[in-house]
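User: Let's play a game. I give you a shape written as tokens, and you guess the letters that built it. Ready? Here's round one.
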């Protein structure tokens, strides 16, 4: 629909409404049971239509602007940190790490209870289900559960409280990531203040654990990684501290590329190999060790082929200014960086 026509029609309605409320276009009175009553319904209808149309135009304009600005992804509100976990902690050290987390009032969110926050009171490992243990006859400990005794809080002001247990099968843990949320309460309003360090655990569903300090969060990751290692299990951690996605046709056109090839860096882990190499979000990876990068999966294969300690020579295309802050600026430069594989 033509926005200019809608705007003109809105103005016409507003003029008509003004005439009615100022008496310039007065209506005949209506008689109800011998009582005279002014008919104001048309004026109110016009005013309601005006408000609706103005609101629609504002939303439509905002939506159009957002569409124009989403060529390049916005910076993430969370800060991702590189993790190179210790996997050699003995059971006593694992228990100490869990106890310290409890003493600092570690909070967590269970995916089965979205509106409830839990405060851990005890963490230990217990024997898993009999059926799962039978699947691992040689090492039944692989079917152990992480048992978390916790106090739960829910309600608008967390005024309803109780106690419960959460069980997480240890062989379901697929990843652990460390993040920091500067504006924690905007994203996790139930989590108590001051617990900005966040460990994401993917174990069938996503579990979020929140800590007061970075050391507590890292020690928690080390304890879990060591417990998994002792049971013959492991977690694949990022080797490069990189996240990427395919370059879209709009991004390719904006960057002067003939085709929508290569990959766009979306996140870089602080203190990771990519960060130390000087790679930044919104960099476009054109080549890896002389091979032209085609897409997401191709870049993954190129990096996976590198042995630990090897270096990847990456040819990058970088915009000189942030496209989200300076959309009209379109100057780019190429640079080569060396990234070590872990």
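Assistant: Ready! My guess for every position:
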């Amino acid at each position: 629909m033509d926005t200019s026509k809608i705007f003109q029609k809105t103005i016409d309605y507003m003029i008509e409404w003004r005439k009615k409320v100022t008496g310039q276009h007065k209506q005949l009175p209506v008689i109800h049971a011998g009582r005279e009553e002014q008919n104001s319904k048309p004026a109110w209808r016009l005013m309601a239509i005006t408000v609706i149309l103005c609101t629609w135009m504002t939303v439509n304009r905002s939506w159009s602007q957002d569409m124009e600005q989403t060529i390049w992804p916005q910076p993430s509100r969370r800060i991702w940190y590189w993790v190179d976990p210790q996997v050699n902690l003995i059971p006593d050290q694992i228990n100490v790490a869990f106890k310290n987390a409890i003493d600092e009032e570690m909070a967590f969110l269970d995916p089965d209870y979205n509106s409830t926050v839990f405060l851990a009171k005890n963490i230990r490992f217990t024997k898993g289900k009999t059926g799962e243990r039978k699947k691992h006859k040689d090492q039944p400990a692989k079917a152990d559960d992480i048992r978390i005794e916790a106090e739960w809080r829910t309600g608008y002001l967390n005024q309803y409280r109780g106690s419960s247990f959460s069980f997480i099968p240890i062989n379901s843990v697929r990843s652990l990531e460390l993040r920091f949320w500067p504006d924690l309460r905007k994203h996790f309003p139930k989590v108590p203040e001051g617990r900005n360090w966040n460990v994401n655990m993917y174990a069938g569903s996503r579990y979020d654990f929140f800590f007061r300090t970075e050391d507590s969060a890292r020690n928690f990751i080390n304890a879990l990684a060591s417990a998994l290692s002792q049971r013959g299990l492991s977690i694949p951690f990022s080797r490069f501290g990189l996240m990427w996605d395919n370059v879209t046709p709009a991004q390719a056109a904006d960057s002067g590329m003939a085709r929508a090839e290569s990959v766009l860096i979306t996140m870089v882990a602080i203190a990771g190999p990519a960060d130390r190499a000087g790679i930044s979000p919104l960099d476009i990876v054109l080549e890896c060790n002389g091979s032209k990068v085609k897409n997401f999966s191709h870049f993954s294969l190129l990096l996976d082929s590198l042995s630990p300690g090897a270096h990847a020579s990456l040819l990058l295309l970088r915009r000189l200014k942030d496209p989200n802050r300076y959309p009209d600026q379109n100057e780019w430069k190429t640079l080569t960086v060396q990234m070590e594989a872990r």
